[in-house]
C-alpha cells in the first residue's frame, strides 16, 4: 500500500484522537495534566514538562503554575497602575471608558474612532475607525460575548482564571492612516543578564507579517509560525533605544515576559505584558530555536506559584 493510501486510511483515526485530546485538555481537572495534553497536541511529542529544556515546555508549565503576580499584570486595565508607577503616565494609551455591563452602555459618548477590547483575555480586540459606519448593536453583542467568557478555559492559562471581565475603550493609534506597528520585546533574564529580541508586527490587519531582530537590529533567520516580510523592508524604528529601555524597566523583576509596545506619531505607547505567548503553542523554525530561547532565561520558581 502506498504512503498516500496509508495516510488517507489513518486520517479518520487521527481526527478522532485529536478531538479526544482537545476535549480532554479542556475538561480535565488538573491544569498540569491539561498542559501536558496541550503540549502533545501542538508539538506532536510527549513531555512531562518538568525538564523545561525548551521555551515551549517552560511556557506550557507556566500556564499550569503561574506566578501570582501575573494575574493583575495580565489585566489590561489593572496593569496601567503598574506601568504608571514604573515609567510614568505618558506611555499609557488614553482611555475613554471601562465597563463591566454593556446593556445600557452609551456608544455615542465615545469619539468616532476607538479600540474596544476585553481586559480579561487575549485577542479580544475590535478596531473601530468610524462608528457611524458600524452596527452599534453588533458591537454591543460582541462585547457582551467577551464579558460572558472566561479566557482561562480556552488554553488553561492559569493567570487569566480569576480576572474580572471588563471592556475597555481606548484611543485608536494610527500611523499614516493605518494601525500603528506593534513592537513586542521579548525580555529574557538569566543570572541577572538581560537579552532582548524584538518581534515586529507589520500591517497587522491586512497583510500581517512578523519579523524577529536582535536588540542591535540584526535580522534573526527564524520564526515561530508567522509569515515574514523581506527583512530589508522592515525599517528600524527611530525609537528603538526607547522601546528597549521601556521594556527593560517594565520587565526588571521577571525572568521572562514579552512587553508589547506601539509607536504612533513618534511616540511610544504601552500595549500589554504577555507571560505565555501563544499559550506555549508556537512552533519554532528552525526547531533548535525552541531550545535556544530556553537557555536565555532562568527557570520559573514554581514554589511561589498557585498549584491547581
Task: Lay out the secondary structure.
Layout: H1 3-27, H2 31-43, H3 55-64, H4 70-74, H5 79-87, E1 95-99, E2 114-118, E3 125-128, H6 136-147, H7 152-155, E4 167-170, E5 174-175, E6 178-179, E7 182-190, E8 193-202, E9 209-214, H8 240-250, E10 256-264, E11 267-274, H9 288-294
Antiparallel strand pairs: 1-4, 2-3, 2-4, 5-6, 7-8, 7-10, 8-9, 10-11
Helix pairs in contact: 1-2, 2-3
Low-confidence stretches: none
What form results from the Cα inertia axes? globular
Number of strands: 11
> Under the CATH scheme, which architecture of the largest domain would be assigned?
2-Layer Sandwich
Tell me the Rg in angstroms: 20 Å
Structural class: alpha+beta
CATH class of the largest domain: Alpha Beta
Which homologous superfamily in CATH is the superfamily of the largest domain?
ATP-grasp fold, B domain
Your description of this structure?
The protein folds into three domains: 63 residues, no CATH class; 79 residues, no CATH class; 100 residues, 2-Layer Sandwich (D-amino Acid Aminotransferase, Chain A, domain 1). The chain is globular. Strand 5 and strand 6 form a beta hairpin. The protein contains nine helices and eleven strands. The longest helix is centred in the first third of the chain and has 25 residues. It has 308 residues and is an alpha+beta fold. 31% of the residues lie in helices and 21% in strands. The strands form three sheets. A five-stranded antiparallel beta sheet has the order 9-8-7-10-11, covered by helices on one side. It has a four-stranded antiparallel beta sheet with strand order 1-4-2-3, covered by helices on one side.
Amino acid at each position: 500500500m502506498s504512503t498516500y493510501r496509508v495516510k488517507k486510511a489513518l486520517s479518520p483515526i487521527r481526527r478522532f484522537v485529536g478531538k479526544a485530546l482537545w476535549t480532554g485538555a479542556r475538561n480535565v481537572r488538573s491544569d498540569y495534566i491539561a498542559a501536558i495534553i496541550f503540549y502533545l497536541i501542538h508539538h506532536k511529542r510527549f513531555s512531562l514538562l518538568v525538564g523545561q529544556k525548551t521555551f515551549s515546555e517552560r511556557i506550557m508549565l507556566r500556564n499550569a503554575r503561574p506566578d501570582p503576580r501575573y494575574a493583575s499584570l495580565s489585566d489590561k486595565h489593572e496593569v496601567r497602575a503598574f506601568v504608571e508607577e514604573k515609567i510614568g503616565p505618558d506611555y499609557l494609551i488614553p482611555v475613554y471608558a471601562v465597563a463591566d455591563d454593556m446593556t445600557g452602555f452609551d456608544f455615542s459618548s465615545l469619539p468616532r474612532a476607538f479600540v474596544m477590547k476585553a481586559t480579561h483575555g487575549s485577542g479580544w480586540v475590535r478596531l473601530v475607525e468610524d462608528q457611524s459606519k458600524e452596527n452599534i448593536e453588533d458591537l454591543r453583542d460582541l462585547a457582551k460575548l467577551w464579558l460572558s467568557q472566561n479566557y482561562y478555559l480556552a488554553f488553561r492559562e492559569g493567570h487569566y482564571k480569576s480576572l474580572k471581565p471588563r471592556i475597555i475603550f481606548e484611543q485608536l493609534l494610527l500611523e499614516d492612516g493605518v494601525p500603528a506597528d506593534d513592537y513586542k520585546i521579548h525580555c529574557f533574564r538569566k543570572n541577572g543578564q538581560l537579552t532582548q529580541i524584538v518581534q515586529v508586527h507589520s500591517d497587522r490587519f491586512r497583510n500581517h507579517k512578523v519579523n524577529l531582530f536582535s536588540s542591535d537590529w540584526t535580522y534573526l533567520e527564524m520564526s515561530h509560525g508567522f509569515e515574514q516580510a523581506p527583512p530589508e523592508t522592515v525599517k528600524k524604528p527611530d525609537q528603538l533605544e526607547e522601546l528597549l529601555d521601556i521594556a527593560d524597566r517594565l520587565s526588571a523583576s521577571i525572568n521572562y515576559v514579552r512587553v508589547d509596545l506601539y509607536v504612533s506619531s513618534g511616540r511610544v505607547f504601552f500595549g500589554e505584558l504577555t507571560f505565555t505567548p501563544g499559550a506555549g503553542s508556537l512552533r519554532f523554525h528552525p526547531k533548535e530555536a525552541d531550545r535556544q530561547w530556553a537557555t536565555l532565561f532562568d527557570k520559573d520558581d514554581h514554589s511561589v506559584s498557585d498549584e491547581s
